[in-house]
Amino acid sequence: SKGTYEFYMLKEIDEQPGVMRKLSQDYLDVNGEPVLDQKIVDAVSEADRLYIYAAGTSYNAGLVGKEFFEKLTGIPTEVGLASEVGYHFPMLSKKPFFIFLTQSGETADSRVVLKEANKRGIPSLTLTNVQGSTLSREADYTILLEAGPEIAVASTKAYTAQLAVQVILAKAVGEKLGVKAAKDFPLKKQLALAAEGMQQIVDGKAKFDELASDYLIKSRNAFYIGRGIDYAVSLEGALKLKEVSYIQTEGFAAAELKHGTISLIEKGTPVIALINDPVTAELTRGNIREVESRGAHVISIVSHDLAQAGDTVVLPKIDYLMSAFLTVVPAQLLAYFASKNKGLDVDKPRNLAKSVTVE
Ligand code: F6R
Question: Where in the cell is it found (predicted)?
Fold first, then answer.
């Protein structure tokens, strides 16, 4: 039940620290070593390439997953939209392994890809929130997201649970393969930082209520910009904001704006800039100056270590590789408050259903 919450979406945003703790407890031992089904770890370890397929928010989680798998396992990883792959299969490596990300486990677009994979004898794993769901039954292996029922149409805690399960799997596979980066990665501590950081952010939600009212609800359009992992989170932030608030929002690789889309920036256009990557932070600061000089109103969401005077939101401390866990929460809260403050039905945006069982 919603309890004292007006909408499930906010309840589910608030539940994320607890989901992180539960996943850490269930999938990591006291020493921080992953405890996953060994058959799954072995099967993934044998692959020469990973292929992640999904739709919508789950696809956006896969874009972050690619970073986890490549950094921690050294296995090249591709991410694709299930709907684009089902009837036009990519060229595959010699030993492919398919990973399906799907909160509901029922998405028709993803099922088409899995059917074809099964026909070709490609091993597969479904990460899903729903035990016994179709994609879980039809894949060789399943890992559950353990996020608890997600009722709001806009996915929040399933996204961060997908991040967590992917990074746990990546660490397990990387360790099995003897990859130093995996052995050295203090995942249990980082997941604890994710949980604590999320808690701090949701405890400060009033700030996002204000930002949404002051800068978003009167706007026709908006942009998210970022580089690297921040680009992946920009796509998710934009999807969240547009689907529940109906403000047309695009997520952009920060440097790409100037290659055309910057012509849409007008006085007051909201640009939400995400900065967590130390390597490209200064470049994104440059992109912020470009849009500001054309009148944009910039909301900057910046990691603890890279923050400067004047930044709008400073995130709690966490490793860059884990930054999506924290960056996405302000994005979820901005979407929630933009929708609520426009008087919309946050949990049931028009034209949308919770699970999409048509192609
Ligand atoms: C957006 C959202 C959708 C789903 C997409 C895939 O908030 O919820 O984009 O992520 O329809 O659904 P699943 O993960 O159930 O396959």
Answer: Cytoplasm
Q: 43: buried, middle or exposed (CB in 10 Å: 19+, 13-18, 0-12)? A: middle
Residue nearest to atom 9 of ligand 1 (CA): 56
The model's pLDDT over 147-161, given as tens digits with 9 standing for 90+, comes to: 999 999 999 999 999
How many whole angstroms from 158 Cα to the centroid of ligand 1?
9
Q: How would residue 271 be classed by pLDDT, with cut points 50, 70 and 90?
A: very high
CA–CA separation, 115 and 334 (whole Å): 38
- Report which ligand 1 atom has the smallest distance to the Cα of 158: 14
For residue 312, what are its two tokens?
Answer: 């709008």
Of residues 185, 137, 207, the one with CA closest to residue 28 = 185
ipTM above 0.90, yes or no: yes
Evaluate: CB of 108 within 6 angstroms of ligand 1.
no
Angle at 228 between CA 355 and CA 86, to 5 degrees: 40
Strand, helix or coil at 99?
Answer: strand
Q: Given the residues 176, 207, 348, 354, select the one marked as catalytic.
A: 354
3-state secondary structure of 222: strand
Collapse the DSSP code of 176 into the 3-class scheme (helix H, G, I; strand E, B; otherwise coil) and give the result: helix
The residue-averaged pLDDT of 53-82 equals 98
pLDDT at res. 356: 87
* Predicted pLDDT of residue 357: 86
Is residue 56 in contact with ligand 1, taking CB distance under 6 Å?
yes
